[in-house]
Design a protein that fits this description.
2% of the residues lie in helices and 44% in strands. The chain is built from 2 helices and 37 strands. The strands form 11 sheets. Strands 2-1-3-4 form a 4-stranded antiparallel beta sheet, with no helix packed on it. A 4-stranded antiparallel beta sheet has the order 5-17-11-14. The radius of gyration is 25 Å and the shape is globular. The two termini are 46 Å apart.
């Protein structure tokens, strides 16, 4: 289950959430994040849930319970296989699903690209892949399954730099002896290198064995990163309607959409989402994740969006559209700064924004954690950070800007393992000389180590210079991973 984060206007912070099941007066769990997996349930059974929030005050003030939501567990006999192709160990993904180490193959070699893949929260599925150099025998995966209908999902990403061009790697995929995807070009279909491509199809098995074959084609060698196989039920129920849709303009021609994942209680799984703009009957995009960046828009223009969810059933049941949200693109002349703190080179993020190498600072040192950070598609912004050991002078970033209003976003992640505990690193952040965040504890507010925390605030600049200061506080040293400054209105 997932929900939107609560806020606390009483001067404290939200400390956690209590989960209630089936109207019981006693909670079944307490968590600090905005998701929970309830396990040990009975199959094919309807369950109802509510959630409340509590703060960090001495009295631990608790909110009223949320509106309830329900879900029905699957029939226990549903078969599933999840294979991390090329993987050497079991992996539990961001949704709690377990993927086995590579198994079921007949030939091929393991590739170890270890590159960040856009479009997925599960980087470990793409750390390795299986590829087939020799044309005979062709690479094949075989799984023993009961006869019936199955949904097969195959996950790819082009990570071999000599093949970063359309037409450089082209192969066929056959399932149960029939070619399902002919001349598959992962680079072209994914829209470039190091981007996830998921292909799905429904398959009828009549011989007790499901065969997936990757055949040499027009260019280079077949490859595969992950395989997911789910037994299809007679699912006629659509997923829940997506909620929490937010539309945010990020430049003069671009709006970013985010929403809460839908659930599917009909026996299948949510396969993806369709995005609709300005009430059009035809979707502008289909995605598998819970975010989308709409580009190529006109500046200073209002756009409206809705999102629907669809499942992996043969009928591809689609939910009703979500409530709409609107955003207005910026005026093209707006000023922006994006700084990769500690970064030594320019970086273009997953939304196409350019972040400069570290600049504008007065002191501090570069930390190089190089750890995977949950909650972001832009790992490069967290490969390094800037931290300040000496209390004088305090670390400060200074930027020359026209007088006016600015949105300041600061990005953090706790990556120093000796400080993996609440209260281990606590510092203050001042902007334009005023403390904006006092006793900032990144580990606590992010919900743990190696997780992104973004703090934002609007600032009025009247002296032509925007100053952001990271001051030593209760424990250890201030640090920062990335800084984003967007002008919203000029005097």
């Amino acid at each position: 289950m997932n929900w939107n984060a609560s806020t606390d206007s009483g001067g404290g912070t939200v400390a956690g959430y209590k989960i209630y099941r089936d109207g019981n007066a006693t909670e079944i769990a307490t968590v600090t994040g905005t998701s929970y997996v309830d396990i040990g349930l009975s199959e094919n059974t309807l369950y109802s849930y509510t959630v409340s929030a509590f703060d960090n005050a001495a009295s631990s003030n608790e909110s009223l319970e949320s509106d309830s939501d329900v879900a029905t567990t699957w029939v226990g006999s549903l078969i599933s296989y999840r294979i991390n192709a090329g993987g050497v160990a079991e992996y539990t993904d961001s949704a709690g699903n377990v993927w086995s180490a590579d198994t079921g193959f007949n030939t091929g070699a393991i590739g170890t690209p270890y590159k960040y893949i856009a479009g997925t929260n599960d980087q470990a599925l793409f750390h390795r892949n299986r590829y087939d150099v020799d044309p005979m025998p062709e690479l094949m995966y075989q799984f023993n399954v009961p006869n019936g209908n199955y949904m097969v999902k195959l996950y790819f990403a082009e990570t071999y730099s000599p093949l970063y061009a359309n037409g450089s790697r082209v192969f066929d995929v056959a399932i149960e002896g029939n070619i399902v995807w002919s001349n598959l070009d992962v680079f072209a279909q994914a829209g470039g290198a190091e981007k996830m491509l998921m292909k799905s199809t429904e398959v009828l098995v009549g011989d007790g064995e499901l065969n997936i074959e990757f055949r040499h084609g027009l260019a280079d060698h077949p490859m595969i990163s992950a395989i997911e196989i789910m037994a299809n039920s007679n699912d006629t129920q659509p997923p829940s309607v997506p909620t929490g849709l937010t539309a945010t303009a990020t430049n003069a021609g671009q709006i970013e959409l985010n929403w809460i994942p839908s659930t599917d209680s009909g026996g299948g799984t949510v396969a993806g989402y369709k995005i609709y703009r300005d009430g059009n009957a035809t979707e502008i995009a289909t995605v598998t994740g819970t975010s989308y960046v709409d580009t190529g828009l006109s500046e200073n223009t209002l756009y409206s969006y809705t999102v629907s969810a669809f499942d992996n059933a043969a009928s591809s049941n689609e939910s009703l559209e979500s409530d709409s949200d609107v955003a207005t693109t910026w005026v093209g002349s707006l000023i922006s700064y994006r700084i990769n703190a500690g970064g030594v080179a320019e970086y273009t993020d997953s939304a196409g924004n350019v972040w400069s190498a570290d600049t504008g600072f007065n002191t501090g040192a570069i930390g190089t954690p190089y750890k995977y950070i949950a909650g972001t598609n832009d790992q490069a912004l967290f490969h390094r950070n800037r931290y300040d050991v000496d209390p004088m002078p305090e670390l400060m970033y200074q930027f020359n800007v026209p007088n006016g209003n600015y949105m300041v976003k600061l990005y953090f992640a706790e990556t120093y393992s000796p400080l993996y505990a609440n209260g281990s690193r606590v510092f203050d952040v001042a902007i334009e000389g005023n403390i904006v965040w006092s006793n900032l504890d990144v580990f606590a507010q992010a919900g743990g180590a190696e997780k992104m925390l973004m703090k934002s605030t609007e600032v009025l600049v009247g002296d032509g210079e925007l100053n952001i200061e990271f001051r030593h506080g209760l424990a250890d040293h201030p640090m920062i991973s990335a800084i984003e400054i967007i002008g919203t209105q000029y005097n």
